[in-house]
Amino acid sequence: MKTFINIKATDGMWTHAVAHWRDYLEITKPKVVLLLVFTALVGMALAVPTWLPLQETVFGLLGIGLASSSAAAINHVIDQRTDAIMKRTENRPLPQGALNTRQCLTFALLLCGIAMAMLVLLVNTLTAVLTFCSLIGYAIVYTVYLKRATPQNIVIGGAAGAMPPVLGWAAVTGEVNAYALLLFLIVFIWTPPHFWALAIHRRDDYAKVDIPMLPVTHGIPFTRIQIFLYTILLVIITIFPYLVRMSGPLYLAGALILGAMFLYHAWKLFDDTATKQPMRTFVFSINYLMWLFGIMLVDHYVPQVLRLFN
Ligand code: HEM
Ligand SMILES: CC(C)=CCC/C(C)=C/CC/C(C)=C/COP(=O)(O)OP(=O)(O)O
């Protein structure tokens, strides 16, 4: 009898999981996680002079990806009330009633458990501990506290999202050094222009739910100045991988071209008549980071590939 009931319960879980797989996927913020995992891969690649170790690379990336997905799912649970009121987020699975709190939390805990087991058993403890701290930093410190407390929320909270290159570095070397922190710094300084461009476009949404994002508390003109200043800082910081000889001239050229484009997008925000510019700048910021880390990866492997032919 007991077995019969258990089989029925498992059956119900599977039917639910199959019917709602798109909703579960959505609460993991898959596109964000993909870019996070890519920055982790670049962190791994730059950490070792030769080819990457297979086990640490594969399970490191999977662990970091699953932990980030778990953090994103917890963020959906905690934000469900405000998400229901904001236009951009009202159609998410929780506000729509497609999933409930218990289902999302069970899913998040499962992802977190798998991620931690993978990292501890198949990668190393340092990576597991740092990944867990990043998960707590985003899902709890940022979402529960910072987001509602201060307009510097995303500046401080951005530290969690900037961790993946460091996590990748730790996964393949078992340690963290100043080069890894330089990659962290790039994503950390990139985050405010990335998010504030979107926040300008969505200012009224955030005002409606009393979330103190910079354009709500300090106004749009002040936010534009901050975006521009952070972008200048970003351009300067992205030169450092070349200066410390972590990357070569190919990277430098790419970083300068991309930096000039980002500055142009940040400058265009000052034009009041360009109503579509905030979203253009936001979308560009995502492409910027993808290309910047992409060029870093290519720059790292070009000499190795050339050596193969010599
Ligand atoms: C505290 C830090 C961050 C904040 C507050 C933030 C905020 C946001 C928000 C609100 C969106 C949603 C836009 C929408 O729904 O249309 C978004 C999209 C996105 N973010 Fe961020 N972000 C942060 C850090 C990061 C990091 C570190 C990465 C990757 C390295 C990243 C990559 C992306 C990507 C790829 C998208 C597009 C997602 C899509 O189109 O579905 N973000 N970000
Ligand atoms: C383990 C690890 C590396 C964890 C970090 C994980 C992570 C998903 C970072 C991304 C940051 C992000 C998308 C913030 C937006 O949250 P929001 O609540 O401001 O945006 P929303 O309104 O779209 O939900």
Short summary:
With 310 residues, the chain is mainly alpha-helical. Helices cover 82% and strands 0% of the residues. 43% of the residues are buried.
CATH class of the largest domain: Mainly Alpha
Radius of gyration: 21 Å
For the record, give the distance between the C-alpha atoms at the N and C termini, rounded to a whole number: 70 Å
**SSE string, helix = H, strand = E?**
HHHHHHHHHHHHHHHH
Query: Shape from CA axes?
Result: flat
What is the tally of beta strands? 0
CATH topology of the largest domain: Tetracycline Repressor, domain 2
Structure description:
The chain has 310 residues and is an all-alpha fold. It folds into 2 domains: 14-176, Tetracycline Repressor, domain 2 (Orthogonal Bundle), CATH 1.10.357.140; 177-310. The chain is 82% helix and 0% strand. It is built from 16 helices and no strands. It has helices at residues 2-19, 21-27, 30-47, 54-78, 80-85, 93-96, 101-122, 125-149, 153-161, 164-173, 178-201, 203-208, 214-217, 220-243, 249-268, 277-308. α7 (101-122) packs antiparallel against α8 (125-149) and α8 (125-149) packs antiparallel against α10 (164-173). The chain binds protoporphyrin IX containing FE and farnesyl diphosphate. Residues 29, 32, 36, 67-68, 71-72, 75, 79, 89, 131, 134-135, 138, 143, 160-161, 163-164 line the site of farnesyl diphosphate.
